[in-house]
Queue: 3 jobs
Job 1
Amino acid sequence: MSQDQDMPGSSEGKPDKLEDNQQENAESSEQSVRKKIRQNPPTPSRGDTLEPSPPQFVSMEELMETAKGVTNMVLAHEIVVNGGFQIKPSDLPENSLEKRVRDIVHKAFWDCLETQLKEDPPSYDHAIKLVGEIKETLLSFLLPGHTRLRNQITEALDLELIKQEAENGALDISKLVEFIIGMMGTLCAPARDEEIKKLKDIHEIVPLFRAIFSVLDLMKMDMANFAVSSIRPHLMQQSVEYERKKFQELYEKQPNSLDFVTAWLQEAADDLRSRAALAVDDGATSSSGAAALCPVAIQNHAYLKLLKWNHLQKPFPETVLMDQSRFQEMQLDLDQLILTGAILLVTLSAAGTALSGLPGFSDKLKMVIRVLLTGLHLPSFNLNEALAILSEKICAEVNSSLSQHGYTPFTAEKETVLKGQILALASPDNSVCKLIDSRIQSYLESYLASGHQKSLPAVPGGLSPVQKELEEIAVKYVRLVNYNKMVFSPYYDAVLNKILNKDESPKLCG
């Protein structure tokens, strides 16, 4: 029986503070933007190329099929590269035809069950079918070694015996339900203990059956998510080989399937050649040129360029097309992080040592900044207006904290200077934003260059207020890049070999 939308659910408490509401609204708006990106990546595309990945959440049936045979490349890719991948319940849109049909069918079923149980004598045909479904579900949760539990379920939920008891008027359905709830409590994850406890407070049979199936659906998702975390390491190599094989099939049909990849890597190599030439002009040793043209460095620089990509103007490289939405989301995250880091830098510089080391002060400012920068990438967002409001709120927060800790609040002149510095961050050429951006790029480049080392590189100066957020983005970014390298390294090596051989005296890594 599928999950019913009318099931009893745990109620959520209302936030006590305005900040909580603002933060929830910010998260909701950001999620909406990200959902649109995942569903509609704005990129020029060529016919018959790989399609961008679908939204993150998929059905459990697709997941289990993939876990068995790795037959769905996109789903396998999603599981491997998304460390936070989870099965989620699917919510049909309100007022949609599918939801109306499902609600009608569910209501008809439960009404029929209630009518049967109210007959004199009661008819248990539907109820016994439900018990059979519950039995199969409980058995599906067991591992091969759970012999004792398997025997208990099989014996207590013997359908033939239950039918005979029903026919003879000796069926104690409350006793059956008590066993079912007890077994669910034994098999469920600790996070479901509260839902199991609520089942014991429901005394009417029909609502109780509905609630049991709802909790069983949650337990199925828990089991599937556990399976995801378990199979991810084993799925990695299979997925690498599978994706490479599928891309090779595409490449054989369309020999021009690496055109955008070639242009992407060529552009990265040209950038590094220019950088090396400038370094030589500035008096650097010639060895820097050799390092700059190392194939690994070219690839790493190319991947960094994906975080500055013009998705409306430039075709995305074919080998990373499935992850275009992910790179775009990271790009949005980094854009907001740059602005957040710049605001914090000028604020903490103005406040001096009085507040820079104060526990929780930066986090409080970040929350205010996050709320007011919600929707930063929407066409309707007015950055100048948002920064004007932010400058007022930040000055108020700074003065409040200074007063609370016995320091002299800002003078009107100092407030004016800080507000002006914050408003100036709207300019694309702002030196503070450029500095933060450059240091973030250097950090990501160092992280990529560190290979598979477990420790994160040191965060450059000025980024400590946003260190946590930066490291979270970096971990996701490097995981994605390293996986893509594993899949497509033979193609990158071939393209880079041609690019480097164009140079009369190619400089390769030693």
Note: The two ends are 63 Å apart (CA to CA).
Job 2
Amino acid sequence: MPLNDDQNSDSDSSRLSESTSSSSDSEYSRQSFNSDSSSKPSSPASASPPKTITFDELMAAAKNLTDWTLAHEIAVNTNFCIKHDLPQNSFAGTVKQIVHEAFWDHLESELNEDPPEYEHAIKLFEEIKEILLSFLTPGANRIHNQICEVLDTDLIRQQAEHNAVDIHGLANYIINTMGKLCAPIRDNDIKQLKATDNIVELLRQIFRVLDLMKVDMANYIIQNVRPYLQRNLVDYERTKFQEILEETPSALNLTTEWIKESIEDELSSISDESSSSPGADSSSKPTISPTLVLNNGYLKLLQWDYPKTIPETLITDEVRLQELREKLNQLKIIACVCLITNNMVGAAIVDVPDFADQLKRISVPLLEGMNKKTFDLKEALNTIGVHICSKVNGSLTERGLPALTEEMQSNLVGQIAHIAEENNPISSLIDKRIQFFLRSLLALPSVQKCMPAVPGGLSVIQREMEFVGSQYVSIVNFNKKVYGPFYANILRKLLFPEAPMGKAETETPTT
């Protein structure tokens, strides 16, 4: 209840003491994250949103989730979350630390004055009040009113004029309220706050924990909005992109060029096949499958030069596609290393169980970071070759067989190092087989669950290829669902220019 004019500072202190001691009130307990303070899961529990909430209202509550790229990331990346802070060794982190140090030093000097100067402290309490209120769920009226009553900055300012501010009492109330509202993972931080005596350091640590709580709340919202996004993302993303296209008609230019290049590649392939087939009718117009064109375009994304701008319709998955490309490059090298080793010294290791897996374990750590500009692939391959020779010789010695000759070792190391060269035949062969596997995956009906057979030479990386392939197909299939109508119009325009153009179709183009 608001204070009457005739209430004095004693009643103020009584009210503050009563509010501070009410931490056991179950009505307030963890209003923002949990509804039951007696059960503390390891992460914020789900709170039921209003049952009549609309999708747009839910998106607005999540702040900026109407950004279609962010919505896509939240829906498809279950590990997506907000990070807690800037790295301390970064420039921005260093600047932030310097500014904060100066502020807290200034606050300490103000509070040490005689009489103390409270203006900056009052502004801090006002900011703390707003942060605490932002954690409350709809309907938490009692704790909302209490926070506004206890952290009434006008009243605190009046008390400051009479040097009667109970700053420690206010801080204790804030800590107790934070304890009710925070996720269980912050309980230890709250205990540490209660053990802090210096008021300036206490206020500083309160803000630190509040920052953590804000991030916890953002991630809590993300967790709750994700299932809704996943159920509605196709329509939502298509609608948002249509809005962008209406505002910016050139928003499909790169996508059109991407599809056009795929059509030209397909026409070139058909032309090559026709020229090599005697009696082929070169006068007839070739028939091109729109689905094949799209699938070939998707395959090219795994060979994309990523400084080159990716098609607009794939911006939301650019990072994932780049990571898959980098992973495939590493797997290709490993398959090449194993194939060369088997071809050159296969007789020496034919009886060694799981030798291919041993070669993989040698190669993987030495190929970490191979997609960085500073990475020396040839040097890494040379090191892999040396390790493999040592491994083979060790195996031969254990079985009482002669070690590899110096010439065989030199040839093996040299062949492995040559993988890094452009147009290396082994590398080209493995690359074609990887492309064939991925093309076979894209051609599978969506209802089919099993993987296609892995081509020869890829058995050593079969498990990894199937994992990468499933991720890749998931990205492609979702992209087709969202942008199929846009692709259909582009393909119709490029493949059948004489046909009348209509509105975007509602189905993905098929064979």
Note: Residues 1-66, 505-511 have pLDDT under 50 and may be disordered.
Job 3
Amino acid sequence: MEVCYQLPVLPLDRPVPKHVLSRRGAISFSSSSSLFGAPDPRQLSQRRGAISYDSSDQTALYIRMLGDVRVRSQVGFEPERRSSHPYLCIDFRTLHTRLGCGSTSASSAPERRVHRLLSFQRYLHSSRLLRGVPQQIPLHILDEDYTGQARCMLEKVGNWNFDIFLFDRLTNGNSLITLTFHLLNQYGLVELFQLDMVKLWRFLVMVQEDYHSDNPYHNAVHAADVTQAMYCYMREPMLAKSLTSRDILLGLLAAATHDLDHPGVNQPFLIKTDHYLATLYRNTSVLENHHWKSAVGLLRETGLFSHLPAEDSLNMERELGSLILATDISRQNDYLSKFRLNLDQENLCLSNASHRHFILQMALKCADICNPCRPWELSKQWSEKVTKEFFQQGDIEKKHKLEVSPLCDREANTVGNIQIGFMTYVAEPLFAEWARFSDTRLSQTMLGHMGLNKASWSGLQQEQTSVSEEVEPSMAGADTEDAAARKDGNTGGTSSKEIPQGSRES
């Protein structure tokens, strides 16, 4: 993992204090946000390292895919120590890159992005038009980049059948930037929190860049999809009338950054390869901790909240972490049991800040795994993408002679059986409780889609089974005919199957 350090200018004869190191890659941060000033382009081109995925649940094998608590090691907590395990040298950002790709294009792409970003910042700084954002100036900074179709889609961004794949194509791969900015603007959060437009734009660009486009599933499009789902949930009547502007800001930022710098492999992979991040976070919510710290790193690097009182900024960072950490599927039963108990006792009071925060955690958990609840055309695409990512990890494990993680063996699993299991053990229990909390048309629509999608996968599974059963009898019939022909003395030539049979008879 590449880590960049930014040091203030100090006399050469004095040692550099440890506290001035501002570590990128979201491992540790100085408490002084002023250290995260305008970055050197050479630093920006060294993107943050990569991590993995995490989870574990006692109810089913499917939850193990995100982190198995049973394989947590007993190593000590040594944040800065890297062991000599050979798999530490794996660059997770290039795990799925084709061998034929040249290094020149890979290295020049981030540099070109940095140049575009810096040019945009210079333009905004020179114009001074958006510094401070007076209320009389409309916030349509991105309109010139929208096509007419993308603008039409944003008018219906609250619809559950919103096609994020189409929107990503219409925005030239910038769905996360465009969608998040639009929602922040729509809620009036830019003016309300006096967010600097340059810093906000830069933050969103860096967030999108820190998602790995090589990941079939955990990429910026997934983050945009989760953000759109989170918006749908926050518009539900019980939340819309209770959430504060601060809640909404944190909810949208948590959705946009909840899988930041995800490498496309899961937490058990990091643990069994003795990755230093697994040691750093004691094999507990490794990915979620890294996503959170990566988000905090970008907030401080861009200074998005630097104009707020220090205490307020730190509190927002902590609450952002609490939301992102809730997406750890290994704690699924804990959150679900607490949610169910609160609903049974009817003691949720959304005028209470802690209760609202808990509901935001549950909303983000739902948004993170809402793919089975989308219409079939969208849900099927997500199912295929996540399974492809699982199987790619399995291929890597086989290549390095590691034990293949559950659900990652393409020879033992199919898209259908993985999805049916996930819906049964993970999605259905969660969304059933969410429907108890928010019994609305959207909740019923989600449950309806999930039922239909589960039935569709079951039907496809049955078709595949029947096809395989038809193939086996036909092969058996061919063997019987060959044996009968030999018995009658009608050899009619030899085949590859007859030779071993003849040898066995002799």
Note: Strands lie at 5-6, 22-23.
